[in-house]
């Protein structure tokens, strides 16, 4: 098969490309230039897509003896990922830019171009498994990336290859070291790639400016603080609230209202929600018949919980948790996994959280 290897410059994509070569495929490497300021070198494990990463990817391609190209997708990335990220926070939601990048860039723009150029598949270094066309969790639970791939369609998965899903990250580094790749010990990238200093609030403040408003305590209805912008908060947040309350009990962000610029906080006993309503879902395979039992993961690093999935409003879903969940923010992706204890690592699909259902609200039957 003619395979396009997406090479970020990290150890995972390097080993994925190498395994594709070992499997006998006709492999071409491509590095995605996503940053509009690529000359800025990454700092330790923060950031990616720098000129340094491009050079690392090229060195690996040279060692593998495969053609290598750089595709400039910076404008597309800015529009579909960065601008979307800013707009979502401005609207009081909490997006996942890695999921959006997979949806809009790696498995839309790149895959579409690859197919147009006559490639049969795109191979990436994601830690997830594909078995008989079904997307599953990686065997390395600590590195599993199936959550951010839950947005992919059956057609996209049919043209994807994830050769690292059956091995641990330690084994990936061992393979890289055995081959003499300089990236064998390169740190993993962390945080948001286009915010290399890790200061999300500062990044958003530079984009959106100062938009001050009150912080209100849900229990008393009293203003307990002020803020410079609702974009500096996410539902479930505990630290950095800047509030002053008399009882000293920890407060959590319960809600964000961008129109009135109000951030509502409350104690832990008020933070749980029994269910969420979502937007229109995408499915990785056949559309399941509603309602059905499943497991749901509402954040990239959250533990999956049992749930029941019902038809919701406007083509969306109503996801009812077996136990109340905290920190479920609008804009996050609710990724659904099969409930079967043997096959519970299979991804069914995902939908963006639209709103939490209040405790007194009606839940599906």
From TrEMBL:
<feature type="binding site">
    <location>
        <position position="32"/>
    </location>
    <ligand>
        <name>ATP</name>
    </ligand>
</feature>
<dbReference type="GO" id="GO:0005737">
    <property type="term" value="C:cytoplasm"/>
</dbReference>
<feature type="domain" description="tRNA-specific 2-thiouridylase MnmA-like central">
    <location>
        <begin position="202"/>
        <end position="266"/>
    </location>
</feature>
<dbReference type="Pfam" id="PF03054">
    <property type="entry name" value="tRNA_Me_trans"/>
</dbReference>
<feature type="domain" description="tRNA-specific 2-thiouridylase MnmA-like C-terminal">
    <location>
        <begin position="280"/>
        <end position="351"/>
    </location>
</feature>
<dbReference type="GO" id="GO:0008168">
    <property type="term" value="F:methyltransferase activity"/>
</dbReference>
<keyword id="KW-0694">RNA-binding</keyword>
<feature type="site" description="Interaction with tRNA">
    <location>
        <position position="332"/>
    </location>
</feature>
<keyword id="KW-0489">Methyltransferase</keyword>
<feature type="region of interest" description="Interaction with tRNA">
    <location>
        <begin position="143"/>
        <end position="145"/>
    </location>
</feature>
<comment type="function">
    <text>Catalyzes the 2-thiolation of uridine at the wobble position (U34) of tRNA, leading to the formation of s(2)U34.</text>
</comment>
<keyword id="KW-0963">Cytoplasm</keyword>
<keyword id="KW-0820">tRNA-binding</keyword>
<feature type="binding site">
    <location>
        <position position="125"/>
    </location>
    <ligand>
        <name>ATP</name>
    </ligand>
</feature>
<protein>
    <recommendedName>
        <fullName>tRNA-specific 2-thiouridylase MnmA</fullName>
        <ecNumber>2.8.1.13</ecNumber>
    </recommendedName>
</protein>
<keyword id="KW-0067">ATP-binding</keyword>
<keyword id="KW-0808">Transferase</keyword>
<dbReference type="InterPro" id="IPR014729">
    <property type="entry name" value="Rossmann-like_a/b/a_fold"/>
</dbReference>
<keyword id="KW-0819">tRNA processing</keyword>
<feature type="active site" description="Cysteine persulfide intermediate">
    <location>
        <position position="193"/>
    </location>
</feature>
<dbReference type="Pfam" id="PF20258">
    <property type="entry name" value="tRNA_Me_trans_C"/>
</dbReference>
<dbReference type="InterPro" id="IPR004506">
    <property type="entry name" value="MnmA-like"/>
</dbReference>
<dbReference type="GO" id="GO:0000049">
    <property type="term" value="F:tRNA binding"/>
</dbReference>
<comment type="similarity">
    <text>Belongs to the MnmA/TRMU family.</text>
</comment>
<dbReference type="GO" id="GO:0103016">
    <property type="term" value="F:tRNA-uridine 2-sulfurtransferase activity"/>
</dbReference>
<dbReference type="InterPro" id="IPR023382">
    <property type="entry name" value="MnmA-like_central_sf"/>
</dbReference>
<feature type="active site" description="Nucleophile">
    <location>
        <position position="101"/>
    </location>
</feature>
<dbReference type="GO" id="GO:0002143">
    <property type="term" value="P:tRNA wobble position uridine thiolation"/>
</dbReference>
<dbReference type="GO" id="GO:0005524">
    <property type="term" value="F:ATP binding"/>
</dbReference>
<dbReference type="GO" id="GO:0032259">
    <property type="term" value="P:methylation"/>
</dbReference>
<feature type="site" description="Interaction with tRNA">
    <location>
        <position position="126"/>
    </location>
</feature>
<dbReference type="Pfam" id="PF20259">
    <property type="entry name" value="tRNA_Me_trans_M"/>
</dbReference>
<keyword id="KW-1015">Disulfide bond</keyword>
<dbReference type="InterPro" id="IPR046885">
    <property type="entry name" value="MnmA-like_C"/>
</dbReference>
<dbReference type="InterPro" id="IPR046884">
    <property type="entry name" value="MnmA-like_central"/>
</dbReference>
<keyword id="KW-0547">Nucleotide-binding</keyword>
<feature type="binding site">
    <location>
        <begin position="6"/>
        <end position="13"/>
    </location>
    <ligand>
        <name>ATP</name>
    </ligand>
</feature>
